[in-house]
Design brief:
The chain is an alpha+beta fold. The protein is built from twelve helices and twelve strands. Helices cover about 55% and strands about 20% of the residues. The two termini are about 20 Å apart.
């Protein structure tokens, strides 16, 4: 059993950082819904961080109840006329409203206003990620190294392909390479997938085909990860390690690029899962996020914020998936409504919401099982 010291360590080391990070991401996501909904003239009944019984809250002059709830694993904005947990419209209830109430209800709002309100949540998550990266780049800069090979591991993919020390990597699959980290990022998510590395040697450009080796790695915290490697190393002498600084405007641009890298990397990871290039046990749930939050917290606020930015992008992308009960599912229904000129029938939406809920719950159970499996080895 855990003693008092162990419980305090668990709280301060894992639970508190996890709750703080998750609450920040949820607040920003729901604030996106709230701001655009308010701007669209939709009445907002409640803004909650967490689910379940209310712990503390207040009601503002617009009649919105702002509250912190018991279970800190999400949150919600409740719009007038949209009280159903799945946001499935109630045609009978809408018809029974007065003209004034209908105009201020979510279901009675124009299609573009509903779509904008729903899309604002994920968009807010992307903006948060860009802002976090921009702040970090402005304050700390970014450690970079030139993409020059200092060493080729014997027997590695690069060695067999004929790469030698001194080679300058200038592109991979036609995409320009500017830093050694660009190479690492591109290769790591493509195990056992053919790539073309363009190198420059003695002023001559060469296209070198390679297939990154699938490699099991262990990070500094003992977490096992699976990545692709080609077996090249750089060092200070040839890579010229340095900290690249950014003006505020340049930091925003670099933050946008970094956020885009996470988006494309996530889609590549999903594609690798579907095609079998990546094992599904790499998919983590709330336990793994809590563990990562605690680990990053030991490295300082900057590392924890960087994790928050990555998770913010992940939450934005997850919510944009065209699955009923998620924001992307609602946007899908709105697109159908725009084409048909009227929404899908209640029965069709009800079936879709049930299927979507089953999919989301199944994903949560699977990810949590992976977390537990990783903990018990």
């Amino acid at each position: 059993m855990l003693g008092l010291t162990g419980i305090l360590a668990l709280l301060t080391g894992y639970i508190v950082p996890f709750v703080l990070v998750l609450s920040l991401l949820v607040f920003v996501h729901e604030m996106g819904h709230y701001l655009v909904g308010r701007w669209s003239g939709i009445r907002i009944l409640a803004f909650s961080i967490g689910f379940g019984p209310e712990l503390v809250g207040f009601t503002d002059k617009h009649g919105t109840r702002w509250k912190l709830s018991l279970i800190p694993l999400g949150g919600y904005v409740r719009f007038f006329g949209d009280e159903d947990a799945s946001s499935k419209p109630d045609d009978d209830k809408l018809a029974a409203m007065s003209e004034e109430d209908r105009a201020r209800s979510f279901a009675g709002a124009k299609l573009w206003k509903r779509a904008a309100t729903v899309a604002a949540g994920p968009i807010a998550n992307f903006i948060l990620a860009i802002a976090i990266f921009a702040v970090l780049f402005s304050i700390y800069g970014r450690s970079v190294a030139d993409p020059v090979v200092a060493e080729v591991k014997p027997g590695s993919v690069a060695a067999e392909a004929g790469v030698v020390p001194g080679d300058l990597l200038i592109a991979i699959d036609g995409a320009k390479v500017e830093t050694f980290d660009d190479v690492r990022r591109y290769v790591s998510i493509r195990p056992e997938q053919r790539i073309i590395v363009t190198i420059e040697r003695n002023g001559e450009k060469l296209d070198v085909p390679m297939v990154p080796a699938r490699t099991d790695m262990t990070d500094q915290f003992g977490n096992k990860i699976e990545i692709g490697l080609i077996g090249i190393v750089t060092n200070q002498e040839v890579g010229h390690f340095r900290v690249q600084t950014y003006s505020p405007l340049a930091a925003v641009k670099e933050g946008t690029i970094q956020t885009w890298h996470i988006v494309t990397g996530t889609f590549k990871y999903i594609g690798n899962l579907v095609s079998g290039y990546m094992k599904p046990d790499q998919l983590g749930g709330p336990i793994r996020v809590a563990q990562a939050s605690g680990q990053m917290a030991t490295l300082g606020v900057a590392a924890l914020l960087q994790l928050a930015a990555v998770l913010s992008v992940s939450i934005g992308l997850l919510n944009l998936m065209p699955v009923p009960v998620l924001d992307g599912g609602h946007l899908m229904f709105y697109a159908i409504e725009a084409v048909r000129g009227k929404p899908l029938g209640s029965s069709a939406q009800d079936i879709a919401f049930r299927i979507g809920l089953a999919m989301v719950l199944s994903l949560m159970v699977f990810a949590t099982w992976n977390d537990i499996s990783a903990l018990i080895g």
